[in-house]
Input
Amino acid sequence: MNRTWSYLYNSINTNGFVLFGLIDPDKHYEENGANLALSMEKGEADAILVGGSTGAEGEIISDTIRSIKKKVNIPVIIFPGNAGAVSRYADAIFYLNIKNTTSSYWGSEFPFLMTPLIKKAAIEPIPVVYMLLEPGQTAGWISQACPFPRQKPDLAVIGALSAEYAGAKMIVVDSGSGSRLDTPFELISQISNEIKIPLIYGGGIKTPEQAYTVIQKGASGIQVGTAAEESKDVIDLFKSLREAMKNGYNSRNMKPLDVQAEVRQAI
Ligand code: 1GP
Output
């Protein structure tokens, strides 16, 4: 039942981090998405996330996941933009609790409506708290989030602690796809110092330097979509991100995952 989570958790424990490649089936449908996912796998991504805020539901996401599954061996996880993103062809789904939505639909009905679909699809739900950070981009607008302000990292720290206290297995802090703001290293550092569960950062990561510092500051992973879409050599891009993450992890003064024996019990 917890196969994909165990795999992710073991990857974090063994290597220090995970690298997620994100495919938006609205932009990369079926074979197109599968070829991109294959390059990510060859570039040593740990798992493929599939999802998007718009146009990534029903047959569009399901056909794409099925094509990806035929080509790659690493887990394929749905990163749902709405309840209609559930597909039986995936290995797992991030069961998203959108921490800072102001909408009762996204806070309550969205997970409610996903639930019977996940049950029927018999895929693994991974409880993830999703925290949208400024600027939030399309995901922030669609989910009616009140994005965490970058100048007030203490608020994001409280949000992350609240997620941990409520039993989340993992936190995704996301500036939104294609964010052009600076990567919030200080905020990542402050959250990582306070929480025990893995923190993943996404939104605007394009370079090995960003990947290095995100991991060095204590995050347990990154998710990368736009940079892959724009890259001429996705394999090389992902390999260089991975190498940078490895160096970032090795250069940490302390390893926040030392305390994760507690998390292990939850697997
Ligand atoms: C979006 O965090 C992801 O939800 C990835 O962002 O497309 O900017 O890599 P990018």
In short: The longest strand covers residues 124-132. The chain has eleven helices and eight strands. The beta strands are 18-23, 47-50, 76-78, 92-98, 124-132, 170-174, 199-202, 221-224.
